[in-house]
Amino acid sequence: MSEIITADGIATGLNADCTCISLDHEALAEALSTDLGSPGLAAAVLERMPMAFAAQPVFVPAAAATRMAEVVAAIESVVALPAFQADALAQAPAVAGVGAGGPAGVLFGYDFHLAPGGPALIEINTNAGGAMLNAVLARAQRACCAEVEGWLPGLAVIEGFEEALVAMFREEWHRAGRPGSPARMAIVDADPKSQYLYPEFLLFQRLFERHGLPTVIADPSDLEWRDGVLCCRGDVIDLVYNRLTDFYLDATVHAALRAAWMAGAIVLTPHPRAHALHADKRLLAWFSDEQRLAAWGVAGRERALLRAHVPHTEVVSAAAAERLWAARAGLFFKPAAGYGSRAAYRGDKLTRRVWSEIVASGDYVAQALVRPGERRVARGSVSEDFKYDVRAYAYGGRVLWLAARLYQGQTTNFRTPGGGFAPVYVAPG
């Protein structure tokens, strides 16, 4: 693992010293207008999401980008093992048992911190947002200097990414054993117009429809399960792009969607099984446990990759409470079914009251703290230190795109002026 670029690498120096602006705001507005089909709608998006797009890129060493792809592939090889699946599904609700051999689940997000020893996988998300926003952002980049011009993705690369997004949904359809193409698709989330990433739903809708896939955006309450088909406002739905954070469809309002999935009447992606096999944060304890991996028959190279790049994680238990409390400064605590950094705590910020609630819940993991990368960001006449993580958007164990999120504070957010999604420029080394 020694070939990973460390703190002396080109990328680290650029992240610390290069404060040139790469975002062309006029090009961003034009790209949004083109993709959304309406200049007025593009203006509304930029007004709604003023801190979604960072003005500067994040530089990542090529060796680290390669290693992230290898870690993603290694995780997928573990997930494919029958022994792993049996153990993971045993701790999940029954609904996760549906769908074996079918759709894999679209657009997983593998989130990494770039540490001196290489990328550290801090979590996996099955409903990762931002892919289409990053495609638009890529269209609005300009080289901040001649040295980095060759690192920007060209138009062919960006269009190839968008084509891969459409192909991914078609592949899910075919994995489910369906011929042809879905006649109508739905992007489903709770009260979608209120979601911060609602503009991305519009971008996906436009992308799908440009490729001959009629798509609606719907709240779960718009769905009706009757006569063996799932309907949305009177139209039959064949495929659902699931953006809900009720990962096992437990809520009453999700009954129609759950019934259609259980009956095999729709292609649902991502689905409960995908969450149980990838995104339950208790799995991070398994991925970082070499003894368990060996017992499942994971090959030596994959075990070495995961040992080096998945921070040690354990499930919080009452028996380990005092030990974990004493070591809390070096730990990060996350709910097993959490998302979007909700109810996640850095150990050195914990109070005794919150800690007692964490232990009592029986639903948290403690992960060795790996600090995020740092990026110097220009804001007007001054510059400030920001944190960043890198998200690898992946499908079927293959990385499709890398993006970064710049932020200040304890966890990623879109509330920091100067922060938001940032393009990743892969630097030599």
Reconstruct the topology from this structure.
Blueprint: H1 10-17, H2 25-36, H3 39-48, E1 58-61, H4 62-79, H5 82-90, E2 108-115, E3 118-125, H6 131-139, H7 155-175, E4 185-188, H8 198-210, E5 215-218, E6 223-226, E7 229-232, E8 235-236, E9 239-242, H9 255-262, E10 267-269, H10 272-279, H11 283-287, H12 290-296, H13 300-309, E11 313-315, H14 321-326, E12 331-335, E13 345-346, H15 352-361, E14 364-368, E15 373-379, E16 382-395, E17 398-407, E18 420-427
Parallel strand pairs: 1-18, 4-5, 4-9, 9-10
Antiparallel strand pairs: 2-3, 2-16, 6-7, 7-8, 11-14, 12-13, 12-14, 15-16, 16-17, 17-18
Helix pairs in contact: 2-3, 4-13, 6-7
Short summary of the structure?
By secondary structure, this protein is α+β, with helices and mostly antiparallel strands.
How far is it from the N-terminal to the C-terminal residue, by CA?
14 Å
Q: Outline the biggest β-sheet.
A: 7 strands, mixed
Radius of gyration: 21 Å
- What is the general shape? globular
Name the beta content range.
Answer: 15-25%
* Count of domains: 3
List how many beta strands DSSP finds: 18
Instruction: Output mean pLDDT.
Output: 93
Unreliably modeled segments: 1-8
Helical fraction equals 25-40%
User: How many H/I helical runs?
Assistant: 15
Which structural class fits the helix and strand makeup? alpha+beta
| Assembly context of the chains | single chain
